[in-house]
Design brief:
With 369 residues, the protein is α+β, with helices and mostly antiparallel strands. Strands 1, 2, 3, 4, 5, 6, 9, 10 and 11 form a nine-stranded mixed sheet that branches. The chain is built from twelve helices and eleven strands.
Length: 369
């Protein structure tokens, strides 16, 4: 695990051969290192879940009440794989038309600090409909939410896009997480101020017509229907925040929020926080384009889980480097091409800077040898 994590940091690859080349000097050493790491990742005689929880607990120390925690799912497409365990069917977004191919789904939660621009994965949970103990996507998500809640103690603001507004998710969030923002589908039923049940889009249109002053957003106190979404006897108050403008796709943001409007946070802050949900997209793009997570070459499903745990450890290392060694971090970022161009996520440049430093050290060692 340590060797693969080191390989991800210094080579930007999750492949075992890339990590083994860092400490192997002959072909025999390379083959032995790859075999050893492969057997460790696939070994079913030890349980990595305790280590995964310890890593998560260590990371969430950086999470306070206002830390943003974007949540989203992605797919790990393996179109040419034949022997991997429990392969399902996913969409390959890297190809025209998003064709259906073999692969896995992955639930991800990320920590984002807007001030320091630190973005790090907290949980990467792969899953497939072909797993023997798979009982539905809702159960997988529910387990991940509870693991995140147990580690954070309720700190942070969870943020999720449409698709996460399904009844099972809303029921779980109402019960376990004090503060969150989720974007609703327009047909999601809400109970408005007059006690009637209407689609969220209808309540948004009504609220925008009723506003007395032209502003950037309106807020409306709402509730979720108990016959559709399981709730406790005393659910927390909910607010629907609707910006007056539309997004790039021409649709309004229908933001259902809990624990924020009634805690001195206005609609402008809600819009500002939800806009950072796209950092989950940035994180997925980083994992795919910089660390090439989809290029994993392991056959067993447990080895895939442990590979993604190493990815989390590598992300935690980058976040720690940014926090504790800012000058070194800036120096490493300047090693890559176009380092002076504006970047939203410094981790991109930092990861490439580490890879450049590793290549430079390898070249210097080869010259002396």
């Amino acid at each position: 695990m340590r060797e693969l994590t080191t390989g991800i940091v210094w080579t930007g690859s999750v492949q075992l051969t890339s990590a083994a080349r860092l400490f192997s000097h002959t072909t025999n050493q390379l083959e032995a290192a790859v075999e050893r790491m492969s057997q460790c990742l696939a070994d079913r005689h030890w349980d990595h879940r305790e280590l995964a929880m310890a890593v998560l607990v260590d990371q969430v120390r950086e999470i306070d009440e206002d830390t943003l925690v974007p949540i989203d799912t992605t797919d790990l497409a393996k179109p040419y794989a034949r022997c991997m365990e429990y392969q399902g069917i996913v969409r390959d977004a890297s190809r025209p038309g998003d064709p259906l191919v073999r692969g896995y789904w992955c639930w991800g939660a990320y920590r984002f600090d807007p001030t320091a621009e630190v973005l790090a994965p907290l949980i990467l949970r792969p899953y497939s409909t072909q797993e023997p103990d798979f009982h539905g996507e809702n159960e997988v998500w529910d387990q991940a939410y509870h693991a995140l809640r147990a580690a954070t103690g309720g700190r942070g603001i969870w943020i999720q896009d449409r698709g996460g507004d399904r009844p099972s998710v809303l029921s779980t969030w109402l019960r376990i997480q004090p503060r969150w923002i989720i974007r609703l589908r327009g047909d999601r039923g809400l109970i408005g101020p007059d006690g009637s049940l209407r689609p969220a889009q209808a309540w948004a249109d009504w609220a925008l017509r009723q506003r007395t002053e032209h502003g950037h957003a309106v807020t409306l106190k709402v509730a979720l229907p108990r016959d559709r979404i399981a709730q406790g006897p005393d659910p927390p108050p909910l607010w629907l925040v609707v910006p007056s403008y539309t997004s790039a796709d021409g649709q309004s943001w229908l933001l259902l929020t809990c624990g924020l409007i009634d805690r001195h946070a206005g609609p402008r802050q809600i819009r500002h926080d939800y806009a950072f949900r796209w950092r989950a997209e940035d994180a997925k793009r980083f994992l795919g384009q910089v660390w090439h997570v989809e290029h994993f070459l392991v056959r067993s499903f447990v080895a895939l889980q442990r590979t993604l745990l190493c990815v989390i450890l590598a992300g935690h290392f980058l976040a720690t480097l940014q926090r504790d060694y800012p000058h070194l971090s800036e120096q490493l970022q300047s090693q890559g091409l176009y380092w002076d161009k504006p970047y939203r996520i410094p981790a991109y440049r930092l990861a490439r800077g580490l890879r450049f430093a590793a290549c430079q050290a390898e070249q210097e060692a080869a010259m002396f040898n």
